[in-house]
Amino acid sequence: MSGNPLRKTYTVMVTRTTGNQMELETVQEYGAAMESAKKALDNTNNTEARIVENKYDDATRKEKKQVVKILNRDNVASSTAGSMRAGTGSNALAPEVMSRMTKSIINISLALTVLILLGGIIFRLLNQ
């Protein structure tokens, strides 16, 4: 038995303005497939790009294909504009990381507030 029995690849499929579908390329990583799909939509002859996840199980020798993302010009434009407005560009942090950081900062500030209040109460008790 091998260490990695399940192999994943991602295939970018495009739909032309004529309605024909064609396979653009197959890559190993989802990020590369997403970039390829976005570049494919820059071509005016392509109306839609789909990212298909291909899973191949070496043990059973079966292949499973599943569409994981469908892109068209409308949702690509809104997603890139939204990510730039939200600050998730190439040098920014992911929204999940920002959410965790915000929660951590709130928890730290609450803990400091409680410590200051307890310190004030203890100080008053000691001075009586």
Describe this entry's structure for a reader.
This protein has 128 residues and is an alpha+beta fold. It has two domains: 1-92, no CATH class; 94-128. Helices cover 47% and strands 32% of the residues. It contains three helices and four strands; from the N terminus they run E-E-H-E-E-H-H. It has helices spanning 30-42, 73-86, 95-127; strands at 6-16, 21-27, 46-57, 62-72. It has a four-stranded antiparallel sheet with strand order 2-1-3-4. A hairpin with a 4-residue loop joins strand 3 (46-57) and strand 4 (62-72). The longest helix is centred in the C-terminal third of the chain and has 33 residues, at 95-127. The N and C termini lie far apart (75 Å). Keywords: Membrane, Transmembrane, Transmembrane helix. The chain crosses the membrane at residues 105-126.
In brief, what are we looking at here?
The chain is α+β, with helices and mostly antiparallel strands and 128 residues long.
